[in-house]
Amino acid sequence: MKYSKYYKLIEEQAKIFDKTQNCQIGQTWKYHLLPVIQNACMLAEKYGADKDIVEVAAIFHDYADLLDFANRENHHILGAELAEGVLIQDGFSQEFVDKVKLCIINHRASVVNQKFSKEEICVADADAMSHLDSVVELICWRAYLGEDISTCNKFVKTKIQKSYAKMSKESQQLMKDKYESIMKVLL
Ligand SMILES: [Fe+2]
Ligand SMILES: [Fe+2]
Hints:
mainly alpha; Hypothetical protein af1432; 0% strand; binds fe (ii) ion
């Protein structure tokens, strides 16, 4: 695998994150990070985006969160800077790194930034799609944190709605059935 070093780095950091978040070890990697990377690569092919930029950005998209969840509010900005440090050290060009950074900065549902490239759309859509694919993981995570049913339901519902709203029209079409089904189940 071309970027196996980065897969390993993020998977190991995700295990530490799971411990601090009272999650089952491996949960965040298996149900969020890996699906985001896989979905992003699938979308890159479908939408004709640069797969290398998309794959590397997807790998690092939540890196700042994994290091410290206190970074949550700025994890898109901090994550882009952290990825830059790693990638520049590994000899990637500034042009490549800048495109990766834009994808990380613009991946969040709660921060609606204009997206200018196909690569940014692929990473943001893949992140949103994984929330719909792994809705049970979201529910379990909040439950592990000790939230009651109504708080947990509200958190998950808002996250799913924002995730769907931020997707491109094409990706919304792909996820429409699943989105409507999830909305019927949530309170
Ligand atoms: Fe994120
Ligand atoms: Fe994410």
